[in-house]
Amino acid sequence: MANDKENKKFKAYSSGKMCPKCNSKMASHKDRYACGKCGYTEFKHKEGEKKE
């Protein structure tokens, strides 16, 4: 039983956007990235939309 726990392999999260303010991982929503720690929000742009 103890060997089963030792043999498990855990995969770390490798992808994701990091917050520029507090350097924690941001949540990916449909239209934005949001940081739950500091409240920073970055909106995603669609391909046909102009970036200003």
Automatic annotation (TrEMBL):
GO molecular function terms noted in the UniProt entry: structural constituent of ribosome
Transmembrane segments: none
Pfam short name (any one): Ribosomal_S27
Listed GO biological process terms: translation
Keyword list, A-Z: Ribonucleoprotein, Ribosomal protein, Zinc
Record domain Small ribosomal subunit protein eS31: where: 6-41
InterPro entries with a match to the protein in the record: Ribosomal_eS31, Ribosomal_zn-bd
Top-level division of the source organism's lineage: Archaea
The protein's name: 30S ribosomal protein S27ae
